[in-house]
Amino acid sequence: MESPVDIRMALGTDIIGMTLVVVMIIGNVWRLRLKNKESLLLIAMLGTCFSCCLSDLLAFAADGSKHEYARQFVYFTNTWLYASNYLCAYSWLLFLREHFKIEMSPTQKWSLRVMKVVLILMLGLNLFVPFIFSVNEYNIYNREFGYWIYVAFNYGIVVNSITLYYKNYRRDGSIRFFPIWLYIVPIVIATVIQSLWYGVSLMAPCFAVAIAGAFNSLQNERVFRDNLTGLFNRSFLDYVLFLYSQQGRKASGIMVSLCGFEKINEDFGHGVGDKALCQTAEILRESVGSWGSILRYSGDEFIIMVDSQQDNNISNCIEKLKMNFDRFNREETGGYKLIPAIGVKKHSGEKENANQFLNGLKASVKTDKQRISP
Questions:
Q1: From the CB of residue 28, how many other CB atoms can be counted at a distance below 10 Å?
Q2: I want to staple 1 with a disulfide (CB 3.0 to 4.6 A). Which of 69, 138, 187, 364 is the partner?
Q3: 8 A C-beta contact, residue 184 and residue 203
Q4: From CA 161, how far away is CA 90, in angstroms rounded?
Q5: Distance in angstroms (rounded) separating the CA atoms of residues 204 and 191
Q6: Which phi and psi angles does 238 have, rounded to 5°?
Q7: What is the pLDDT of residues 148-191, one digit of tens each?
Q8: From residue 136, how far is each of 141, 143, 236, 247 by CA, in Å?
Q9: In the predicted model, what is the mean pLDDT of the chain?
Q10: CB contact at 8 A, 243 and 174
């Protein structure tokens, strides 16, 4: 009996997927060489995607083969394919968590651990008691009822990814430098089509398309990111003020400027000064949370855009800032302290341009600096 699958279909789509992965690696060598967790996760995404395309191609090639060990090879390649599909989705989730610097809830962590263990057990058990897929006497792959359980688990990973994304979305307002649909749409379309019509090979190459969308978003995001701290930059401020004016949204700015920062550079060197700026960025992230967006305006000046003009919301944010700076200064053993001067300015929408808003913030923070160091 001949295989119902035309190998040419898998050959074309999977080779396109593997080629796209290779192109992404070549075009992003500089990013992948960075020794940080995000780069390692990008490498993991690319590696699992290539593995997914390769195992998909080999599984289709072996389907229906009359070779002596064809049955074992069909089982092996399809098990490899199922595991690679899961790892593609899981590495994407871990990448989002690292990129957005968001801690998953205990429920999310627990559910992911359960899904991981159950999927491993399912794939192992399937080799002895086929219930996800089986291989008939003609060495042809057939789906079983457990296939839909596997799909449901994989979609659980996708749902967790969407949850993380919208948690970050709430924190950064309406700024969408990393649109989730670039990942979700290709995966959903591929899953639906491939699940309903066996023989259509789309899942693996669509992972490659989704990852290509992620790399494109990362490139766009770099325009709005500060290289040292990872916070947003001045370009982001111009953009977000434009959005606030266009949408008529109520917002306030909180400027934080470090008192005596020049002395840190003079006494300890610019390397320690850069470390102090990164420590300040972490304090701001911890203090602000989902209240607003943080950017490094210039040098030792930072701005927090809060999506509110209510005095109690602004004062709560400032109090948490002061508390966390005080805690840092009590615990820091590097020989320097981070003393923040804090200024506040409510944004007046279309009534003022960016320069007027910034001038008001600078005047406010200057007054606080004079209070701290008269």
A1: 17
A2: 138
A3: no
A4: 9
A5: 10
A6: -60, -40
A7: 898 888 888 888 888 877 766 655 544 456 667 777 788 778 77
A8: 7, 11, 58, 61
A9: 83
A10: yes
Give the residue among 264, 235, 270 at the shortest CA–CA distance from 338: 264
Cβ(127)–Cβ(92) under 8 Å?
A: no
Could you give the angle at the alpha carbon of 177 between the alpha carbons of 171 and 181, nearest 5°? 95
294, 288 Cβ separation under 8 angstroms: yes
Rounded-to-integer distance, Cα 324 and Cα 336, Å:
15
Phi/psi of residue 64, each to 5°? Answer: 80, 5
The DSSP bridge partners found for residue 340 are 258
3-state secondary structure of 244: helix
The DSSP output letter for 350 is G
* pTM as predicted: 0.70
Tally the residues of the chain.
Answer: 374
State the Cα–Cα distance between residues 363 and 86, nearest whole angstrom.
54
Taking alpha carbons only, the member of 243, 209, 238, 236 closest to residue 222 is 236
110-124, 192-206, 245-259, 306-320: least confident range: 192-206
Give the residue among 362, 216, 224 at the shortest CA–CA distance from 294. Answer: 224
Residue 102 pLDDT level (bands cut at 50, 70, 90): confident
Per-residue pLDDT at 125 exceeds 90: yes
Q: Minimal CA–CA distance to 291: which of 252, 260, 323, 329?
A: 252
